[in-house]
């Protein structure tokens, strides 16, 4: 064992000597010298530790603790060797990536030329048009790949240049693969044999070139992922992302920004929300690591921030490319630019602060910059289309605060329109507002961003119509006390509607599907809106008539609106649970609700026959509650039965 340890020590000694010689030849490049000398020292220390462990283990070969220490020392030596030799290996792999990237760019250009040549002889114009669109997308990516190759050739040891090349190649792989597949599929539809052969050969060459590039890229990413990046390299990489944002802004302004395949405004928005949350989490870890003087964790956090900011740039591009609103495009790009700018400051200050952990002023400055980054992230989320739609709806609703504050025009008391007509109008407006609330709940749960925009606008319009009719009805009320009660009930509708929109806004940025808890919160907020609407109608009826028959009709209208809200449980996706009930718990609820519904319907019939208005009112309320519970529990049972059958079908396949 000691003999083998000595042989290994001799080999590592040669490697240490080679590293020191390279450090001497580095000349004025102090950064590279420090890296080489640090690697040599780490390798020498690991070797010495391994030799000592081997000697101790040789004296007591049956000692499990010494065996474990020897194994640990050998693993540390292997890790140190990998780190020490990673630069040389990485340089070779990156050269290979450059060569493969050049070849891919050349093959893609030939495939684009072959596509152009087959335009007149392609019998299937639809497939040819898809191929042309893909050619345009790939042609836009080729300059980025070429730029990454040149950057690596000019600065081969620059981490930012290496990362830029790898990212350019990774972005190129997907669209280029799709181009090769489309070109191959279009070969049978090309009438000219020579053009078909040219297109077929170019697609095969591109496919093979992409396979080679993908293999090299995977290896290069593994090596670069283990190499620590210095702060300047990270800052330089963030600045490259910032320049990409400027290019995205220019393309959007010129109308040349195109969405990638399978890229939608919903997927890009979801990714942006996820990215913003991840950045906030990493910032908290970074501040904690700086306070504890944990330099290794700080390096890990700064690297993760760079990786997530790259995702931020991609999701920003996706939103800008899939949106036709120039204001949305400019806003989201500008907010992302602020995130990158403040993140650069955060990385720089974190590096300074870790060397001065006792400097309270430096720590406070770092915390302030971190708050600025979080503020920029929140502004970025607020710039998403879904949030802008809801912000606009909340803004329009807030204007009714002044309308409800008065004064009210009592001259309308002599209006030709009678009170009954106004009651009918506000009842119609109440039904529309209740339906708009239900639609907004559905679009929040399972709809797209466009659906959310339409339903939020519809909700705002229905709310405005309801309040306007309410104000007109208040002007027809001669008694001050009753008018005050009625206006107060309208204000409650405004408050509950505003809270409902705020809840929709917070849930709309959650990853889909939402949790049962958030679904329940949304349903509760919608139910509060319905209850406040019903209260307005109740005050409206009782303010003019207190007959029992009028109250009975009122309770029926209220019950119908309450039951309308329960439709959301039956209309949502079958894969989204309604609550946390198990199958048997939900089934018990179905049975219990059905029983209560039957009893309530019996009481309605009995009360109607005996003209018992009090029993009729209570029975109608019980019917509404039973129907709502029955809808929710039935939907949950249906979901669980579907999932059981799906799992059963999946298991039978094996």
Structure description:
This protein has 4 domains: 1-227, Alpha-catenin/vinculin-like (Four Helix Bundle (Hemerythrin (Met), subunit A)); 230-382, A middle domain of Talin 1 (Up-down Bundle); 384-544, Up-down Bundle (A middle domain of Talin 1); 574-654, A middle domain of Talin 1 (Up-down Bundle). Helices cover 84% and strands 0% of the residues. It has helices at 2-25, 30-59, 64-117, 125-154, 159-186, 193-226, 231-254, 265-291, 295-322, 326-354, 360-382, 385-398, 400-404, 419-446, 449-475, 480-508, 516-542, 548-565, 567-571, 583-610, 613-652. α9 (295-322) packs antiparallel against α10 and α14 (419-446) runs antiparallel to α17. The chain is elongated and about 105 Å long. It starts with a helix and ends with a helix. 36% of the residues are buried. The model has no long low-confidence stretch (mean pLDDT 80).
């Amino acid at each position: 064992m000691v003999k083998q340890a000595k042989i290994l020590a001799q080999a590592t000694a040669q490697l240490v000597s080679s590293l020191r010689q390279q450090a001497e030849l580095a000349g004025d490049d102090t950064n590279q010298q420090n890296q080489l000398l640090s690697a040599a020292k780490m390798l020498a220390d690991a070797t010495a530790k391994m030799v000592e462990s081997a000697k101790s283990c040789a004296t007591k070969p049956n000692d499990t603790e010494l065996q474990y220490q020897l194994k640990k020392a050998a693993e540390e030596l292997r890790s140190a060797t990998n780190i020490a030799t990673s630069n040389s290996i990485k340089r070779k792999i990156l050269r290979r990536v450059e060569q493969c990237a050049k070849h891919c760019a050349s093959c893609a250009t030939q495939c684009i030329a072959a596509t152009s040549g087959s335009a007149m002889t392609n019998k299937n114009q639809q497939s040819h048009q898809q191929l042309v669109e893909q050619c345009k997308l790939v042609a836009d990516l080729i300059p980025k790949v070429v730029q990454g190759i040149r950057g690596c050739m000019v600065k081969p040891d620059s981490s930012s240049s290496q990362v830029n090349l790898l990212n350019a190649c990774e972005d190129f792989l997907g669209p280029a693969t799709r181009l090769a597949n489309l070109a191959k599929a279009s070969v049978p539809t090309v009438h000219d044999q020579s053009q078909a052969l040219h297109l077929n050969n170019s697609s095969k060459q591109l496919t093979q070139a992409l396979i080679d590039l993908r293999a090299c890229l995977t290896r290069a990413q593994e090596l670069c992922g283990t190499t620590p990046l210095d702060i300047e390299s990270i800052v330089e990489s963030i600045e490259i992302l910032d320049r990409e944002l400027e290019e995205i802004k220019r393309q959007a302004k010129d109308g040349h920004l195109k969405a990638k395949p399978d890229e939608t405004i919903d997927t890009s928005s979801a990714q942006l929300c996820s990215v913003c949350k991840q950045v906030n989490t990493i910032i908290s870890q970074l501040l904690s690591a700086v306070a504890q003087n944990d330099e290794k964790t700080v390096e890990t956090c700064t690297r993760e921030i760079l990786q997530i900011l790259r995702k931020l740039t991609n999701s920003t591009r996706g939103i800008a490319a899939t949106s036709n609103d120039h204001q949305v495009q400019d806003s989201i790009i500008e907010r992302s630019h602020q995130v990158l700018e403040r993140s650069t400051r955060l990385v720089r200050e974190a590096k300074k602060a870790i060397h001065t952990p006792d400097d309270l002023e430096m720590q406070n400055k770092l915390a302030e910059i971190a708050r600025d980054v979080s503020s920029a992230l929140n502004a970025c989320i607020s710039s998403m289309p879904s949030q802008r739609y809801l912000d606009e709806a909340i803004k329009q609703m807030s204007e009714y605060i002044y309308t409800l504050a008065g004064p009210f025009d009592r001259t309308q008391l002599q209006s030709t329109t009678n009170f009954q007509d106004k009651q009918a109008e506000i009842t119609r407006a109440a039904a529309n507002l209740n339906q708009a609330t239900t639609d907004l709940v559905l679009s929040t749960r399972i709809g797209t961003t466009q659906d959310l925009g339409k339903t939020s606008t519809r909700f705002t319009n229905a709310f405005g119509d309801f309040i306007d009719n309410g104000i007109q009805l208040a002007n027809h009320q001669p008694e001050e006390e009753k008018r005050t009660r009625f206006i107060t009930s309208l204000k409650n509708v405004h408050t509950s509607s505003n809270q409902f929109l705020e809840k929709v806004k917070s849930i709309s940025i959650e990853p889909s599907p939402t949790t049962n808890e958030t679904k329940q919160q949304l349903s509760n907020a919608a139910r509060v809106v319905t209850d406040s609407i019903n209260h307005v109608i109740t005050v409206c009826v009782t303010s003019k008539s207190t007959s029992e028959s009028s109250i009975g009709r009122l309770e029926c209208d209220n019950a119908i609106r309450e039951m309308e809200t329960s439709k959301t449980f039956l209309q949502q996706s079958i894969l989204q649970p309604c609550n946390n009930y198990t199958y048997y718990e939900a089934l018990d609820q179905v049975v219990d609700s059905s029983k209560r519904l039957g009893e309530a319907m019996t009481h309605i019939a009995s009360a109607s026959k005996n003209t018992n208005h009090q029993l009729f009112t209570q029975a109608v309320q019980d019917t509404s509650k039973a129907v709502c519970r029955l809808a929710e529990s039935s939907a949950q049972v249906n979901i669980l039965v579907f999932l059981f059958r799906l799992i059963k079908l999946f298991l039978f396949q094996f």
